[in-house]
What we know:
Layout: H1 2-13, E1 15-27, E2 32-34, E3 39-40, E4 44-62, E5 66-69, E6 72-73, H2 76-93, E7 98-105, H3 116-130, H4 137-147, H5 151-154, E8 159-162, E9 173-177, E10 185-189, H6 200-206, H7 213-233, H8 236-255, H9 266-278, E11 284-287, E12 294-298, H10 300-313, E13 319-324, E14 329-331
Parallel strand pairs: 5-7
Antiparallel strand pairs: 1-4, 1-14, 2-3, 4-7, 4-8, 4-13, 5-6, 8-9, 10-12, 10-13, 11-12
Helix pairs in contact: 2-3, 2-4, 3-4, 7-8
The structure holds ligand DP6.
Amino acid sequence: MLRFLSSKIIFFWMKSTACAHSNIAIIKYWGNLVDEERIPLNPSISLTISPLTTKTTVRWGSRTYRVKLDGKTVKGDGKDRIVRNLERIRKLANFDGKAEVVSINSFPSGTGLASSASGFAALALASSKALGMKLSRRELSILARYGSGSAARSIYGGWSELTAGETSQESYAFQLAPESHWQIHDIIILVSKKEKTVSSEDGHKLAKTSDFLSSRIKSVRRNLPLLRSAIITRDFDLLGKIAEKDSLSMHSIMLTSDPSLIYLEPETVEIMKRVKEWRPWIKAYFTIDAGPNVHLLTIPHHREKLLRKILKIYDENQLIECVPGRGAWTSKKHLF
Ligand code: DP6
């Protein structure tokens, strides 16, 4: 009886909950040096964005791995990807047992918004903390990166950079500036709520088939110091120009891969053109991830003007407004 009770107590202590926000990359990560370890081919810089959040509770000590996301049991490849990460953490802690994971997203699933960044950042923090590990932010970013490259950056609040080293230990994220540094608005226009047909995971594998990849990597290396200084000096026009240029450069790699990847929809292109038309009066710049949805970046003074223009064309429920958010954090309110 006493043994049973003590094991219950141990398992209670082996539970932890963490939350993390998603992020939007200004210089994007596209393509891996090593696919299995998600060692990126190029460095990337992003802004962690609130309110898009994943909350995850992990409890170690079960006989099998069980994973639930937004109330549904996760099976197949989705589960395998999470289990691979849990196994890595379990071995690091030298723990012999499996875990139960329950996770919820604050944003509706199936909106085409990437939840892997917030998801794997929250998982890295919750699962390591539940095993009593006190990892540095850098170590957490490496663990999160194994699950999803962009997740490494969601460990930090505000602006962060993911390095592209030659080994896993050299490929980590670090913070460039905290969330309080600069008030930026990111208005996301949901062009399509459909699940994408080619995942980022498969897309990254195609990057090397594009003839233009080496020139993209050269331009990323040129733009990195410029973007870092745009962030530090709060130069919005420079940041916006780099954001547009880099997302177009990433999409040109996708379009010229073999087979080609076309994430853009006619409406995506329509918004891109309109933003350019509005630009003399409204400071707003677009960036687009691996999907058709558009992120419009603006500053407080121009937010209302931009929203008025957008709402003439799109419905309110197609918009999500984000602001700079904090890095991954723990919570005492468990999901089970
Ligand atoms: C276009 O991090 O989603 O959003 O590692 O397979 O999960 P996986 O890929 P992911 O790729 C991000 C692609 C991007 C650009 C970026 O966020 O840097």
